[in-house]
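Cross-check.
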Amino acid sequence: MPKLKTSSFEEHRRIVRACITANQERYGYNDEQLAKLLGISLQTFRKKKQTPDNFTLFELQALSHTLKFTPIQAAGIILGRDITAKEVKDFILM
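Predicted model, tokenized:
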């Protein structure tokens, strides 16, 4: 049986989860610390992390500041897709 293609909605969720999880590991934050930073329970944070479309803009901004998202990661989260090298180059050369 052929593998089903991932929906664009799920792909967007994966990008957000990947950015949060990678930077969490890189900077040594655990879920409990980030939940406290956002003023939400650990259970709520984990649910939002699993379905990141439930994060508010304020929460994403707080996470991006704390986890030091790169501009490319932040743009990927907002656009819901990976940013290509050509797009980065075009932006720099603007």
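Residues 24 and 67 are 6 Å apart (CA to CA). The chain has one domain: 8-92. Passed to J.P. for a second look.
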